[in-house]
Structure formats: C-alpha cells, structure tokens
Amino acid sequence: MIQLHAIEKLYGKQPALQQIDLTIPKASSFGLVGPNGAGKSTLMKILVGVIEDYKGQIKIDSAPYVGNQTAMKQRIGYVPQDICLEETLTARDNLILFGRLYGVKGKKLQERINAVLELIGLKDREKSLVSTFSGGMKRRLNIGCALLHDPDIMILDEPTVGVDPQSRRAIFEMIHSFKNNGKTVIYSSHYMEEVEQLCDHIGFIDRGVVIEQGKLRDVLARHRQSSIYVEGKGISKQLLTGFEGVTEHEEGYLIESQTPLQTLEAVTCHLAKKAILPARLELSQAKLEDIFIKLTGTPLRDNGWEAQQ
Amino acid sequence: MTAIALMELKKKTKDKGLWFWTFLLPIIFIVGFITIFGESMGADSEQLVVQIVPGYTVMFSFYIMISIVIAFIKDRDSGMAARLASTPLSHLKYFLGKWLPFVAVVLLQIVILFGFGVVAYNLPLGDPLALTVLSIGLAFVATGCGMAMAVLAKTENMGIALTQVIALGGAMLGGLWLPVEFMPDVLQSIARLLPHYWALEGFKIVLLEKGTISDIWLSLVILVGFGAACSMVALLAYPRYLRLAKS
C-alpha cells in the first residue's frame, strides 16, 4: 500500500500541491485524474523521487520513503510524460542503459531485454535507431525502459499522449498485464475514458487538491446521476416545467433524476398527453468527466489551474 | 555511473559533428598555419611545430565545452535528467558518468593531434610521463570548464557563445596563436592568468626542453587548480540544474 499524507509542494510561491492525502491499495490500479496542470505530474515526480523538496510523508508498505529512496526507487517503474530516450541509440541500447541503471546485468539483463522487447512489440526493431521510430513506438519503448528491473509498482504519467490507436491498444494491454501480474499501477491521465477502462481505484485532483478518491465503483455510485434527454418539435423548457433539474443541452433538454425509469415514464406520458412525438428520448448516465466537471466546474481538457499560474 | 559513461561514449562515436570539431578541423588548422608561417616567415621548423601543434591542440580541446553544454542542456530540456533522477543512480554518479567520456574524448584528441604532428612534422614528444600527466591536466581543465558552463547556461545558444569566448579569447590572449613574447607586456600579464597559456608552456617545456614532471609542476598546479575551481562551480550549480530539469 502506498500512503501519501499532507503532501505540499510550492513552485516559487505558488502552491502546486496542497495537503494531498491519498491511499493507493496494493495490487490496485489507481487512476489519477485531473486537467492539464492540476498537479498530477508533480505528484508523480514526488512519488518517484525526482522532486525532493516537498512537505509531507510518503510510505510504501508502511516504510517511510525518505531515508529509503534507493530501495524504494528500485521497486518503482516510472514512465514519464516526456519521451526520455536516447534518439541516436538503438532500442536495445536504450534498454541496456536503463537496465544497468537499475542494477540488472549480464545474462539476466539480456533475458529481461528480450522479454520486454516481446512485451512492447519491438523485437523486430531492436537494432533500429530510436530516431526512426513513430511516436507510438517511442511511447512503448519509454514504457519498456521502466520494466527491465521488474518493479512491483508501475507509475505511468499520461503514457498515451499523442499515440495512434494501435499503440494505445498495445499500451492498454501492457497495463492489463501489469494488473494481472499483481503490480500496483498508478496511472495519470486527463482522458477519463481510459481511466474508467483501466483502473479500479480513482483520485480526482484539481488545482493541486485531491477532491475525491476511492474505489471507482464507489465514486461512480456516490456521484453518478442519470438523466433523460429529450429533443423534438414543440418541446420547450416551458413544456417541461413540471420536472425538476431541467437544463438546455445540445438541441434539446436534459432532465436530471435519481429515479430515471420513473422519470422516463413520466416524460413519455406527459408528451403523449400533449400529442408530441419526440425526435429523441434517451436515458443517459453521467460519465466520469461529467462528475469531474460537476465537482470542480473545470473542463478536463482545458489547461488547468497550475498551468494558468 | 558506468552505464551513463558507456552510453555517452557510444553517442560520441556516432556524433559526426564532434569528430569534425575535435579531430578534422584542428588538423586542417595545424596544416594550414604551419604551411603559412613556414613559408612566409621562414621560422625555425621545430619551434614552429612546437608552437602550432600543441597550441591548436590546447585551443581545440576547449571546444569540447560545446559538446558538454549541448549534452547537458539536451538532457535537461528533454526530461532525461529528471528521468535519470528517478533511478537509483546518485547525483554524483550521474555527474561523473557524463563527465568522464568527455575527458576520454579530449585525451584521444591530444593523442591523435600529437600523433599527427609526429607523423607529418616530426614533432618531438619528450618525456612520456610528463606529457601524459600534462594532457590529463589539460583534459581536466577543459572539461571542468565545460561542466561549469553546462550547468550554468540557461540556453544552448548562451552556452555556445560563452564557450566561443573562452576558447577563442583564451587562445588569442593565452599565446596559442602567437608566442607571448611577441605580445605587449599588458597582454603577456593577462596571458599568465589563463590556463591556455600554462598548458602550452608546459607542452613547450616537455617537447622542446625535454622537461620532466618536476619541470612543469607550476603548469600542472595551475591547470589542476583551474579545473578544480570549475568542477566546484559545476557541482555547486548542479542542484539548480536539476531543479530546472525537474520542473
């Protein structure tokens, strides 16, 4: 289990993280979600020991991080948001470099490199210069460099930014294999659908503050609200005055409801009485992104608070 | 540290620009200036060769600073320095791993340029031990300056511009282009403040006067002193470099 308590980080006088408390269960896949600049990368850099000037405490399996950095770093595989590869070297040379940095040597290193090359799907390009790779291949190699020492904690900072659908699928499969092998995965993204697909735990972060965390299904249960969408000729807000929580949405109206089936039935009866046939009448559930916006008022793909600072 | 050093060496062997700056361009300069001065001034052949071959070797050894600046700033801006900080590698080992390959390149540069001098112009080599120790001193000071510049420079252009000032300014004022005896008294005094001058003086003593280590102790002390001062600056400024790299 990874525990973060009262983590604070300042950039100059600007707070980047404020009183962060997070608990990440062992062998879970934890999605850290927030808009660009919310503080996700800063938090990840603290977790992997890149940023050392912060306040607060981190414990991994009850052992304090500070004072055990070398041992802790050995347990972590970090995939940074930037592609950190030596472009003038081959894929294999890059893997050799990172393997040696984590103390993997000799025959074991060669075995690990071969296994990782298979996993990331670059076995046939191992002797090619990285400069000749596509963005997706570089992303996969970037992940491969974090795997050579077989860490039990994987920290991935927006690993799918700018990749093609095939590479994204390959990256998803890799992350599923980490989960299946019992590794703890911490995955940051501002793509909600990725997190919903990959993670079983989630933490929302905005403006350097964690605003919600827990099991994904619990968070969804706490905040997910169903709604009825109705659209068509003759349908107006005035017509729907008998319903609560009506808002304009796209070409029609959204009616929020805790009892969606009953509301759907009521709307259908109401329209039938008025002899109105809607062009669209749908039951929909709020997605993670809708929940995030509801909690923060910040659209996810906007530049966030930290970037604006 | 070995992993970083080996990777850097591998990169160096593939860097055609480095090969040009380090080996080809100095040889062109050496051939060109020996031809010009030999024919037009009728200078004593051995003295001319002992002025020009070590002189341009010293001057171009300082050009390693450009490669060091580029390597460090690239690591900083690409996120590689921050990525390496997430591994168990200590800061000092990273620093040394990046530094030592450049020392090796400068030593190889000295070997090749002096070797060329021997083959092409019968350059006398003198005491091998003194020559080796002095070469290490020169490599130490040139790369030490480069390391300081690399961690202090905010941009690549700034680092390259300052390198040009140090390499070319030092060569001009340090008597690498023209023996200091031909320079005005004020400039001769300035020359004695520069490591370039002391490196060349050391080489002249070893090559022309068959000097040993005891004869070049002053040059060695000054080179090592300069190198140590630059290294200290680099080490002190290194945490700032890492902070920039991490944010």
TrEMBL record, chain A:
The keyword GTP-binding does not apply. Transmembrane segments: none annotated. Residues 2-232 form the ABC transporter domain. Pfam families: ABC_tran. The keyword Nucleotide-binding applies. SUPFAM superfamilies: P-loop containing nucleoside triphosphate hydrolases. It comes from the Bacteria. Keywords: ATP-binding, Nucleotide-binding. SMART domains: AAA (SM00382). GO terms for molecular function: ATP binding; ATP hydrolysis activity. PANTHER family: LINEARMYCIN RESISTANCE ATP-BINDING PROTEIN LNRL. This is ABC transporter ATP-binding protein.
Automatic annotation (TrEMBL), chain B:
GO terms for cellular component: ATP-binding cassette (ABC) transporter complex. It is a multi-pass membrane protein. It is found in: Membrane. Keywords: Membrane, Transmembrane, Transmembrane helix. It holds the Pfam family ABC2_membrane_3. Coiled coil: none annotated. One of its GO terms (molecular function) is ABC-type transporter activity. The chain crosses the membrane at residues 18-37, 49-73, 99-123, 129-152, 159-178, 216-238. Residues 17-241 form the ABC transmembrane type-2 domain. This is ABC transporter permease. It comes from Chryseomicrobium excrementi.
